[in-house]
Write a structure and sequence with these properties.
Belongs to the NPH3 family. Keywords: Phosphoprotein, Ubl conjugation pathway. The chain is mainly alpha-helical. It is about 55% helix and about 5% strand. It is built from 27 helices and seven strands. The strands form two sheets. The protein has a five-stranded mixed β-sheet. The protein has a two-stranded antiparallel ribbon with strand order 1-7. A hairpin with a 2-residue loop joins strand 4 and strand 5. The longest helix is centred in the middle third of the chain and has 28 residues. It is elongated and about 115 Å long.
Length: about 575
């Protein structure tokens, strides 16, 4: 830290009591200066030779008959008694030391006392300005310390432009090429760097962000704004700086209940949102979601939430599933805020639509743009599938309608498989066993059975939580896939993801007939698979016939089995009770 010593005489200021200071000399004091609750017994001549303000104050209190023991009061001097004492010692020529911690207070006090060059050459204001410009403002850390201290002396610090000069000094150093940074400028980040890059040529581009993060939010905002006006700092670095600053404050938000703290933290968060760089990819999606979570808990304005939702929607594919688990405000029906997730998906869709429109209007069309867009949608589809599985597990008040609404927003997004959709549906069925058969049927329509992996199919056909109609569909598609592996099976022609059991059985008979025409080698290769599926088929149809015995023929064609009651009745007419028992035992 830089410092400057002024004067050469020894310090002879002494205290009579806690609130009385005097100069220990043979000459009697002739003026009392009251600063706050402290009284200084001083001599007029040293003070009048350097301070124009004291000249005027003493002149107004002195009369022709009284030339001694005058008392003047200056309760509003910036810096209070300590700053005035330094100024008084300077007037006496006593040794005083200036540094980054006290220079602002003394500079403002000297301005208040009007200690200018016009009163005496080499006066205190001039000497402090030399110290500021030649030492303090050339030091990275001292500039930050001085800027921090200016808050206590507003508006005097602003009048003498110390804050502006500190801001300019900090900004100019922050935009310097990292290869030219002197390590004496950095303090907090140096010890965090690995030894191999802890040298002049290995200074990271964000070397300054830890130091400025120590500033209060109002000064921090001015620093970031000043740096952004300069050329040389990337938007990504500004985003990193904001994230580091938020990390120092945001963890304390959730543990504070005092209303004053809430107001302060809300203002801080809103300021950070206003400082976010407008450039895309300049701020990580995870950081934006943390800000959004905090904005919900702090009940920030709607404008801030909309801006954060828009920014997150632009890069939703970068989010993690855990990021989307946002607690709902008190008084909501659900524990987690699912509406926000819907908003984020809508913002993502809007962004993708704008990109597509821009590509349609552009003359320079890059073939890779469509691939990138498809990949982004695939990533978001997987993200939402994982989110639905997790929210189904931990949210007891998640309704089937809300589940379907969220899932349908990404239903047309490209997916390599529907395993994630199946996992989410199965988790919802498991954690919400009280839903109706009709609701199960509606939710099951979200899944395309043709796009399940063999592992998912093996699990699904033994899953008693799935509607029987879905299990039969999966078996049918597996049979088609085993017979014609190069042909993508099509849905049976009976509506949305559903089919009548008559149609399915006819298709299965057709497949069986086709199998009989294949070569002996193919039959041998698939014999083990056929046996395994035969066991599962027997189990499924056993469940079907058992259901008929228990509930009656009419009940089999309920919402979780088939929309075609006639198909089951036909099969039932051809079976005797003894036949059904034999099939059940098989």
């Amino acid at each position: 830290m830089k410092f400057m010593k002024l004067g050469s005489k020894p310090d002879s200021f002494q205290s009579d009591e806690d609130c009385i200071r005097y100069v220990a000399t043979e000459l009697a004091t002739d003026v009392v200066v009251s600063v706050g609750n402290v009284k200084f017994n001083l001599h007029k001549f040293p003070l009048l030779s350097k301070s124009a303000r004291l000249q005027k104050l003493i002149a107004t209190t002195t009369t022709d008959d009284e030339q001694s023991d005058d008392e003047i009061r200056i309760p509003d001097i910036p810096g209070g008694p300590s700053a005035f004492e330094i100024c008084a010692k300077f007037c006496y020529g006593m040794t005083v030391t200036l540094n980054a911690y006290n220079v602002v207070a003394v500079r403002c006090a000297a301005e208040y006392l009007e200690m200018y060059e016009s009163i005496e050459s080499g006066n205190l204001v001039y000497k402090i300005e030399v110290f500021l410009n030649s030492s303090v403002l050339r030091s990275w850390k001292d500039s930050i310390i001085v800027l921090q201290t200016t808050r206590s002396y507003y508006p005097w610090s602003e009048d003498v432009k110390i804050d502006v000069r500190c801001l300019e000094s900090i900004a100019l150093k922050a935009v310097v090429d990292p290869a030219r940074v002197d390590w004496s400028y950095t303090y907090n980040r140096r010890k965090l760097l690995p030894p191999e890059i802890n040298n002049k040529n290995g200074v990271p581009r964000d070397w300054w962000i830890e130091d400025v993060a120590e500033l209060s939010i109002d000064l921090y905002k001015r620093v970031i704004t000043t740096i952004r006006r300069k050329v040389g700092v990337l938007p990504e670095v500004i985003g990193e700086a904001l994230e580091v600053y938020a990390a120092k404050r945001i963890p304390s938000f959730m543990s504070q209940n005092d209303e004053d703290d809430m107001i302060e933290h809300r203002s801080l968060l809103e300021t950070l949102v206003s400082l976010l760089p407008s450039e895309k990819q300049s701020v990580s999606c995870g950081f934006l979601i943390k800000l959004l979570k905090s904005s919900v808990s702090l009940d920030c304005g709607e404008e801030e939430r909309k801006e954060l939702s828009r920014r997150i929607g632009e890069n939703l594919e970068e989010a993690n599933m855990a990021d989307l688990l946002i607690r709902a405000p008190d008084g909501c029906e659900t524990v987690y805020d699912i509406d926000i997730v819907e908003t984020l998906i809508d913002e993502f869709v809007t962004t993708q639509t704008k990109k597509r429109d821009e590509l349609d209007c552009s003359d320079n069309i890059n073939e890779g743009d469509g691939f990138v867009s498809g990949r982004s949608k695939a990533n978001v589809a997987k993200l939402i599938d994982d989110y639905l599985a997790e929210i189904s597990r931990i949210e007891p008040n998640l309704s089937p309608l809300k589940f379907i609404t969220v899932a349908e927003k990404v239903s047309n997004f490209p997916r390599s498989s529907h395993d994630g959709v199946y996992r989410a549906i199965d988790m919802f069925f498991k954690q919400h066993p009280g839903i109706t058969k009709s609701e199960k049927k509606s939710i099951s329509r979200l899944m395309d059975c043709r796009k399940l992996s063999p592992e998912a199919c093996a699990h699904a056909v033994q899953n008693e939580r799935l509607p029987l109609r879905v299990v039969v569909q999966i078996l049918f598609f597996e049979q088609v896939r085993a017979t014609c592996p190069t042909t993508k099976p099509s849905l049976p022609p009976s509506g949305s993801h559903g089919s009548s059991r008559t149609t399915t059985e006819e298709e299965c008979d057709s497949v069986t007939a086709t199998e009989e025409t294949t070569t002996t080698r193919d039959r041998t290769r698939s014999s083990e698979k056929t046996k395994a599926k035969g066991v599962v088929m027997s189990r499924i149809f056993s469940k079907l016939w058992t259901g008929k015995d228990r509930d009656g023929v009419g009940d089999v064609s309920s919402s979780d089995t088939s929309e075609s009651p006639g198909s089951v009745t036909t099969v039932g007419d051809k079976s005797t009770p003894s036949t059904r028992r034999r099939r059940s035992s098989s």
